[in-house]
Amino acid sequence: MKRTSTLFILILCLLGFHTRCAFFLDDDGFNPLQRQTENNLPVFYIHPVPASSEYCPGTLYYRGREYEVETKIHGATTKYFPMKSYTIKFNEDQLFSDPEFNLYNKSKIILITSFNDNSFIRNRLALDIWQMMDSSHIKIKTYNAVVYLSGKYRGLYTVCEKIDGNLINEHGLYRDGNLYKGVNHDADFFLKENPHLGFKKEEGCPEHGDAGAYADLDELVTFISSTDPDDFNASINTILNQREYEDWWMFITLMTATDSCDKNAFHYHNPENGVWRYIPWDFNASFGQNYLTKRVNWTFLPDFHNQNNIFKRFFEDDEIRTLLQDRFADLLSDGNALAIDRILSKIDEYLPEIREAAIKSEKTWREKYRNYPSWKNRNDFNTFEEEIQYIKEWLTEHHSLLIDEYDR
Q1: Are the C-beta atoms of residues 175 and 168 closer than 8 Å to each other?
Q2: Chain centre distance of CA 77
Q3: DSSP letter, residue 236
Q4: Backbone phi, psi, residue 177, to 5°
Q5: In terms of Cα–Cα distance, which of 75, 165, 82 is closest to 111?
Q6: Is there a domain that residue 259 lies in?
């Protein structure tokens, strides 16, 4: 009798497990504990489908492990896409790791949609270039993976670690410092009645909404906007990491990243004893397309001075401008960090890894992508392979234009 009862309980447990796993079975009926990769990429199985911009409980299967998580829709614009971005939040006793991609003990990761980038590489390439420029930059790790939601295939995504205090701490900086994000184009460092208009405080104390939460950012914007030229030149590098903010201008100029010159940027500051640091974010508008996927000619060369007062102040100072332009020309030259062959080689590294998954994802979303209201009137759509070639050709021509402009 005892043996029969034990067997009965075991059967009930197995039935419960398989009932729960039924939500995760992919379109071909594979169990997520058994099928951990697709097209040689790791697979995220999530249930239920995140349906809100607020965190809701869910379950994730990844690499044969079950995680109890919280999930939400990520992004201001992408939340309207048929293929959305998602943030996954992990419990403290069950943090996310994937040693293959050098990710360890992450409390949050972001799954970035490829719906508005049929090259599937723009965000990943941009963040890799940022690291190529200078190894001392705050690096954001990325890789590609396939996503299933409640058993339904959703396509090829870019996996990205969340910019937060944990990431900051990994780079030897104070975990509980102030972290701000430019959330719209008012985050341009031009002085307004509200100096921090356009920014949102993500971390640090006082918290967003509390008195004095933006005191150090207000002070920075006031300094950038109000300091006379001599004092600006003499003290700017004691207030922010000048080289890093110069690199920000070079970085977006190389890519013509028109939507990341003020907004879509993070700024970190330890108010006790630190200089301001820049951290890049969101580059779907880059490498020859704008945020609505419209083509941007390689000849387009904005200076971004009217979009960002830090850049304007740099270029108004003869000494800073000359050194900045000379360093940019040097970085672009053969054998150096931003040489064209290095960037094109980086693209070629991605292709064997993502090609099969990209073609499947493209097939899944092709009609909805091409008929999306924000860009359905375009008549120059590319396939995945054609978009990769477009980016290579765009980069080659634009890179040559930059060398002509700044190699004096």
Answers
A1: yes
A2: 14
A3: H
A4: -70, 180
A5: 75
A6: yes
Classify residue 198 by its DSSP letter.
Answer: T
Please report where in the chains the tokens 């909805």 appear, as a residue.
368
Closest CA to 183 of 294, 107, 76: 76
Tokens representing 359? 């073609």
Residue 44's nearest CA partner among 99, 112, 102, 93 is: 112
Long-range contacts of 314-317 (CB under 8 A, 24+ apart): 314/245, 314/246, 314/249, 316/229, 317/229, 317/232, 317/233
- Residue pair 176/156 in contact (Cβ under 8 Å)? The answer is no
Task: Judge whether 27 lies within some domain.
Answer: no
Decide: 144 and 353 in contact? Cβ < 8 Å.
yes
Q: Which domain holds residue 292?
A: 174-339+398-406
The dihedral formed by the CA atoms of 296, 300, 303 and 305, expressed in degrees to the nearest 10: -50
Of the candidates 182, 179, 166, the residue with the CA atom closest to the CA atom of residue 89: 166
* Angle, CA of 132, 138 and 143, to the nearest 5°: 65
Show pLDDT as tens, one digit a residue, over the chain (408 residues).
445 544 443 333 334 444 455 555 555 666 776 789 999 999 999 999 999 999 999 999 999 999 999 999 999 899 999 999 999 999 999 999 999 999 999 999 999 999 999 999 999 999 999 999 999 999 999 999 999 999 999 999 999 999 999 999 999 999 999 999 999 999 999 999 999 999 999 999 999 999 999 999 999 999 999 999 999 999 999 999 999 999 999 999 999 999 999 999 999 999 998 899 999 999 999 999 999 999 999 999 999 999 999 999 999 999 999 999 999 999 999 999 999 999 999 999 999 999 999 999 999 999 999 999 999 999 999 999 999 999 999 999 999 999 999 976
Looking at this protein, which amino acid is placed at residue 115? F
SS3 43: strand
* Number of separate domains in the chain: 1
User: Hey, what amino acid is at 261?
Assistant: C
Task: Give the helix/strand (H/E) hosting 68.
Answer: strand 65-74
